[in-house]
Amino acid sequence: MIQNKPSSQTDLPQEFAFIRQHFSALAGAAALELRDDAAVFTPPEGRELVIAADGMVENVHFLPDDPPETIGRKLLRCNLSDLAAMGSRPEGWLLTFARPPHITEQWVAQFCKGLKADQEQFGLQLLGGDTTSTRGPLVLSLTILGSVLPGQAIRRQGAQAGDGLWVTGTIGDGALGLRALQGEIADPSGYLAQRYRLPQPRIGLPLYGLASAAMDISDGLLQDAGHLARENTLHVTIHAEAVPLSDAARQTSPKWLETCLTGGDDYEILFAVPAQHEATLLENGTLDTVCGPVQVTRIGEFTQGPTGVTVLDSAGKNLQFRSHGWSHL
């Protein structure tokens, strides 16, 4: 039977009305007003596409009482961090939203408010996605598209023995922020909680021509440094006293060092730098991003030897940890 086209939002099937109410304002031209089966996206001329995906699950990647606005922003920022690690410019994103009964219309409106703020800040638009219901926790999955000039994507492979290991920003704030929200440590300024809820993606970091390899730190500094070591069949040594910590992190007990190094939720960029490029970095101490300069710190070096990670204290003693980072399985 041929049906008449809905004349208003109230005539739409429930899912379509939900999409139009909350997501239409986020959609770019390629999304075709979210009315078709797929988006029609024209890649920027002379550039290669970079595509990544990340999911977040309630009570796993965020707390049930986290503000919905920050959950939306964190979801987008975690994916933006993957683009930043490859030297990519953001272009667009797709969202899968599995909604449980306890998620209200007001919650979704605030969630989308956060997404809108960040897509405007970082210069990308919604292309499409999918919505469904679930009896389980809230499940969010975002696929992001970026672009780079041909051959300029920075990969995890490419580091050489003798390269320095560098990191942006500070390490451990996100993991400590989670512990603060769970009542395990004090966070009088709220800085650590804010860093957990709103990581800062390093979009625009000028890695091409500087870094030989890079990746973002999501699962813990030690674990992700191990990934870089394995990808390049090298050993990496990290000097614990060189790892940059924020003032808020330093004010916690030294017993939280392991959490800082292995807890994850940093979304900083870990990158290898050949020796000939390190002098300039050591002198300047910062690199530019779209959100302004970010501190960069040399925390170790790559060497030939058994693939893996060694962490040394200020006396050169090998530090041992129960875990190197977060496991997804």
UniProtKB/TrEMBL annotation:
Keywords: ATP-binding, Kinase, Magnesium, Metal-binding, Nucleotide-binding, Thiamine biosynthesis, Transferase. It catalyses: thiamine phosphate + ATP = thiamine diphosphate + ADP. GO terms for molecular function: ATP binding; magnesium ion binding; thiamine-phosphate kinase activity. Mg(2+) 3 binds at residues 37, 82, 216. One of its GO terms (biological process) is thiamine biosynthetic process. It holds the Pfam family AIRS_C. It is an enzyme of class 2 (transferase). Mg(2+) 4 binds at residues 37, 82. Mg(2+) 5 binds at residue 219. Residues 36-148 form the PurM-like N-terminal domain. PANTHER family: THIAMINE-MONOPHOSPHATE KINASE. This is Thiamine-monophosphate kinase. It comes from Acetobacter oryzoeni. The lineage of its organism: Bacteria, Pseudomonadati, Pseudomonadota, Alphaproteobacteria, Acetobacterales. The gene is thiL.
